Amino acid sequence: MKAIIQRVTKASVTVGEEQISSIGRGLCVLLGISMEDTQKDVDYIIRKILNLRLFEDENGRAWSKSVMDQGYEVLCVSQFTLHCILKGNKPDFHAAMPAELAQPLYNNILEQMRTAYKPEMIKDGLFGAKMQVHIQNDGPVTIELVSPSAPLDPKQLSKQEKQQQRKEKTRSKVPSESGRERATPRPRGQDPNASSGADGDVSSEREP
Predict the structure, then answer these.
(1) Parallel/antiparallel/unpaired status of strands 2-15 and 132-146
(2) CA pair distance 195, 10, nearest whole angstrom
(3) CATH of 2-149, one of 3.40.50.150, 2.40.50.140, 3.50.80.10, 3.30.1360.30
(4) What is the reported pLDDT for 196?
């Protein structure tokens, strides 16, 4: 699942000549559902949207408060094109969940957001319609959010964060590669350009 989250001073959705929803300060969220998405992806996206600290506090300190902390609104817009795969210059959308499956899941996301926050603070566009989305981006601030490919529960994510922090501390204490090479004799006959594989390919871990 993908979401483009924009901090706005105002945003609205128009279908044809009719404005169907609008918000003041808050977040405008373009939300794309893929064929692989499950309830775990839904839980992750909802939690992030409502808890991302994209607003300043009462003292003007940036990145301190979430949309819920400040009592701001959220405007969600279904956006299957977020799952575009380019074939040359032609966009392909087969990775997006078909509308007949995506609509119930999208409606479920809205309902869960309203339950987790306040029903009147969650607005949305018109699923499947050709919409004009008008935003006034505040900053500008735009965050791209992708749910983990192997979703974890909150306890696992917390453990994952601690592991990542320990790795970062360990890296900062490890001497440079050139220093290790000088300190560690290489076995006779070993190709100096060959990799031992000890370092491996360390992939960065996602935060919740």
Answers:
(1) antiparallel
(2) 54
(3) 3.50.80.10
(4) 38
Six-digit token string for 33: 């559902």
Model confidence at 76: pLDDT above 80:
yes
Which pair of structure tokens corresponds to residue 136?
């006034």
A 10 A CB-CB count for 98 gives 12
pLDDT above 80 for 157: no
The Cβ of residue 159 has, within 10 Å, a number of other Cβ atoms equal to 11
Q: Tell me whether residue 192 is exposed, middle or buried, using C-beta atoms within 10 angstroms of its C-beta: 0 to 12, 13 to 18, 19 or more.
A: exposed
Q: What is the mean pLDDT of residues 60-72?
A: 96
Q: Tell me what percent of the chain is helix, strand and coil, each rounded to the nearest 5.
A: 35, 30, 40
| Residues, the chain | 208
